[in-house]
Design goal:
Elements: E1 2-4, E2 7-14, E3 19-24, E4 36-37, E5 45-50, E6 56-61, E7 68-73, E8 80-81, E9 89-94, E10 100-105, E11 112-117, E12 124-125, E13 133-138, E14 144-149, E15 156-161, E16 168-169, E17 176-180, E18 186-190, E19 198-205, E20 211-220, E21 224-227, E22 230-237, E23 240-247, E24 253-260, E25 264-270, E26 276-282, E27 286-292
Antiparallel strand pairs: 1-2, 2-27, 3-4, 3-26, 5-6, 6-7, 7-8, 9-10, 10-11, 11-12, 13-14, 14-15, 15-16, 17-18, 18-19, 19-20, 21-22, 22-23, 23-24, 25-26
Length: 296
Amino acid sequence: MTISGNRMVYQQVWQPAMNIWRMRGPGHMETRPSATPLMVTTRDDVSMYYSPDGKRIAFASTRSGFCEIWICDSDGSKPVQLTDLRRSSGTPRWSPDGKRIAFDSRPGGDSEIYVINADGGTPQRMTHNASDDVVPSWSRDGRWIYFTSNRSGRRQIWKMPSEGGQAVQITKRGGHDAVESFDGRSVFYTQPDQTLVTGPIWKVSREGGDEALILDRALHWTNWTLRPEGIYSSTQIGRKHIIEFLSFQNGKTTSFFEEETSDRRGHLEISPDGQWLLYGSRPPGNSDLMLVENFR
C-alpha cells in the first residue's frame, strides 16, 4: 500500500473458489481420463464424499456465507443445504445405510462431532469435550464412529458408539482421518507431522495395537481414498498433479493420472463402483492495483 497526499494505491488480491471436478475412475476403462467440473460456483465446495449407493454426494460449501454441509445428486444437480449452524462445518461422511451423516463443527473454540439425518433435521452433538474432535467416519457395520481428537495431548484416532457413549483411544503414535478397511478388521489413517495436515498412511487393528506403516509419503490428509483393492492418493509437485495407486495385492505403487496444471488440487474421492473420481481444483489467484482518490 502506498499513500501520497490524498491518494492511496493498494493491491487487491482475488482468490478464486475451489470447485469439485470429476473424471472417469479406475472402474471405467479409458485410455486418457479427462476431467470436467461437477459444480461451478463462486464459493468453495470441498470435502466431498459419495453415499454408499453412489447416488448422492455430501460436501462442505461456503455458498451460504458460512461453511455448511450440503448434499447433491451424483451428477452435481439438485444441491440442497443440509445444515444451518452458521459456523465452520466439514468432513461429512455417510453411515453405511446412507441414512445419517457424521460431520465436525465448531460451536465455540473447539470442534465437536455431530450426526444429522441425511434428509435433514436437527444435528445431534456426539462429543462434549474441551478438545478438538474432528474428521469423523463410520465403521462398516455402523456401530462405531471414528474421529480424531487431541484430548490426550496429541492428535490420535478414537472411536465411540454411533448412538453415543464413551470414546476409546485407538492409536498411540499419532493419527488423523481414520477410515475402516472394507473387511472391518483394521483402520487406515494418516500420521500427521508438525503441520498437522500431512503425513504417511498407517494401519492399526480396529481394537488398537501394533501400528504398521503402509504408504511412506507425505500426503495431505484429504488427498487419499481407500478402496478394497488399494489406496489412491493425490500429490502436487510444482505444476504436476499426480494420482497414484497402491495395490494391496503386490504392494506396488503405480501412476493412475498425471497432468500439468497451474491450479491447486486437493481432496480426493472415488465412487463406490469405481466409475468416477472427484477432486477439488482452485485456479491461481489474481490481483489488481486499485487507486482510491480523496483518501483520508
